[in-house]
Amino acid sequence: MKLLIKGGRVVDPSQNIDETMDLLVVGGRIMELGKGLKAPAGAETIDAAGLLVTPGLIDMHVHLRDPGLEYKEDMVSGTRAAAAGGFTSVACMPNTKPVNDNKAITSYIVTKAGKEALVNVFPVGAITQGSKGESLAEMGELKESGCVAVSDDGRPVVNAELMRRALEYAKGMGIMVISHAEELSLVGEGVMNEGFTATELGLKGIPWAAEDTAVARDVYLAEFTDSPLHIAHISTSGSVRIIRNAKARGVKVTCETAPHYFSLTDDAVRGYNTNAKMNPPLREAGDVAAIKAGLADGTIDAIATDHAPHHLDEKDLEFNLALNGIIGLETSLPLSLRLVEEKVLELKALIEKMSCNPAKILGIDRGTLQVGAAADITVLDPNREWQVEAEQLASKSKNSPFIGSKMKGCAVYTIVGGKVVYKRG
Amino acid sequence: MAFKHKDIIGLQDLTGEEIELLLDTAENLKEINSRDIKKVPTLRGKTIVNLFYEASTRTRTSFEIAAKRLSADTINITASTSSVTKGETLSDTARNVLAMKPDIIVMRHAVSGAHHYLAQRVSCSVINAGDGAHEHPSQGLLDMLTMRQKFGRLEGLKVAIVGDITHSRVARSNIYGLTKMGAKVFLAGPPTMMPPGIERLGNVTVCKEMREAVEGAEVVMMLRIQLERQGKTLIPTMKEYSRYFGLNNNVLQLAKKDAMVMHPGPINRGVELCSHVADGPQSYILKQVENGVAVRMSMLYHVSGGELATE
Description:
heterodimer; A: alpha/beta; eight-stranded mixed beta sheet; eight-stranded parallel beta sheet; 13 helices; 18 strands; 31% helix; globular; B: alpha/beta; four-stranded parallel beta sheet; 12 helices
């Protein structure tokens, strides 16, 4: 199969390219990148004039809910949502049922993805058995069977000694540890950010210190063990500062934030909106500004959605009873493009955080349009305006605070291994 | 003026004029409570459901008496006797109650915002009898009525509210109501019980020490301290709490000579209030309870449209 993408603005940070070029894909690989390429016989042509052509976007933090929680999302619906959002690869978190803490579950995911997934699925295994925080999961076998990282996402590794050993052991096995950094004793029964809005709504608050103290602990453990560490979904100005300082002194720490942490504040909770309830919670304006500054100066390496589908029955409840989390795959791109419009990031830097860096952090050979690389490509229209409507979303779940919001920018073609898996009508 | 709200979820949503209307009506209806035959036909044929997800004696009884004095039919559903224990959702319970065509649901719920949720899903009126740490509007109104009876005004009064502000819906409703009516609210309590940004809820001053709040106050309102509920990490002991944030005659002397002592009940004697003060001449605690019935009659009357007027 041959595909020629003609006349698009190719933005590939991995090769420091940002210019109008053509891209030829043959047999699932990038064959040629250059100007005035001719379509070979039998090639399909995509006219990309006025569009951006980037390495396929990678969301390194999603919940596909498969196996065990397929009523929220499954391999097909989750990867369809990814494709619709312009993502060609996702890394799926292990808090499935059962927890992905052994090679049998990983193999199940890999096999099912091979048969059903529209995009590449890279499983993340658990750090500890059952994510219970008691003993290490079989990280060697997890890696061997296809896991690209380990995380107890959804909960922190409470025991600091166990986290130390996890970092040491994972380093030896060559697998990245992703920390869900949260000091649970400070979270208590909190359900939103601690601050004026929580005071007004009479809801129990989660202080920023619950995140900062945990980030600091894990950064020090990474420094002490000289191990790589990735911190998931940072939301506070303190996290940015701690990680910025750690990077400056050479700690091998990377981190991600999610679009909602630079798009919304805890004001979104007003009206007891359970679609604005997630963990960590939406913070305040100062945090949003700090997250943007952290993205701009490179402290924050990646944008990941923490796509967390939940059934309506789990959200249409009194605020305290509703589950944490929102979907994000189909709104991440337009929300992130706002950073370019607001001049927080150059387009190249944005693509770096949505493709090249996640690939590097997870050690997967994606995130590039280099000749010979797998042809994972996102063709996107940064100017197309649309409105988020629940019925239009590919995800099984509709728990998004952005339903009804106007968006600008979307994927027009999502191409995985040279095959168009999504085309916007 | 007519009362335009279908529901009363909180005093935050009401204007000063609307609060005044509710208080004036309560003042008028109060007289019924001292009649020989304590009943008027105002809400005859109306059905009121008291849906209580949290234990309450005072508030539930008060709402029930208020409804009965206005001739409404009342049904009480409490968490222990309803399908709540079977794990039915609030939305399903509400739909089932609604199918029986009530005119008003009076609800108490442990989760802040539960009334907001309910009011969006039912066509009948919803009155908040307390939601989590959010609001308790009938308590705020009865407190203001009691103050107004004593001083003839709310404007310019110095009101001290002392205790666990973080977990108090009574404090929030009083802050909204009192500051809208021009009173000056001073808060005191251990820093572990003072929520961030509370001073932005209205014209409120947060005091370091209880004495500062009480000094020169016309009203000293003490909140109930509930160690078992609010977590053992917030204060060392009841004894120490009582020493720094309890009201005794010595502290009360700092207030105006004719200052009122108030408490939403039930009292922890010897903790936030010493018995001398609770039972002393400056205590208006039972007057609060008495006024509670009139205020709740007023609330029921106004959400019912008010046009049925008096006989």
